[in-house]
Amino acid sequence: MATPAAHLIPSRSAKRANYEPETINAILDEALYCTISYSSENKPYSIPTAFVRYEDRIYIHGSVGSHLMRELEKGIPVCISVTLMDALVIAKSAFHHSVNYRSVVIFAQAEKVEDMASKIEAFKWLTNKIVPGSWDYLRPIQENEVRKTTALAFKIDEASAKIRTGMPVDDDEDLNLPIWTGLIPLQTKRMPPIPDKLSEGMPLPSHLVHI
Fold it and tell me: Model pTM?
């Protein structure tokens, strides 16, 4: 594991930092959305968007007319962040309340995916991440749809994870106070699909049965 660049080392709780690719990739693969932050014309922007990781890159897509895509394809520096919230940490004092979380920060520059076949592959990876198994079920993507969409890749070179787990940590003098402490777990999960009017009475496709 290489020594991380200075801007990847947290200024607080540095012991929670992790630079192992396996840890970083696991968080990226579980998260559905990231936030991309950048500066354009001296104005800050921070945009949430769906993404997918494949090997050592993450991919996003958007309309060719999107301000986000048009700015990022210039190769400007960006900061990409992902956070998974696992639990609220309830301590004996408000000061020591916290959150159990897993997060990743990536510093990168966009690489525009120009090749038609590579763009389609990126769209396939993203579609199957959001709704597993759906790509082959859907109406095939059309060439004009691909041309209307920009695909960007970001190499996961400068990346770090930060993780908090476990119970609250209270001050020694507070440990005997009769105040409840512990965790309130948080969970994001896919619920049973709800059909629209056109799909009422239609059998649920197999890839959605156990989603």
Answer: 0.90
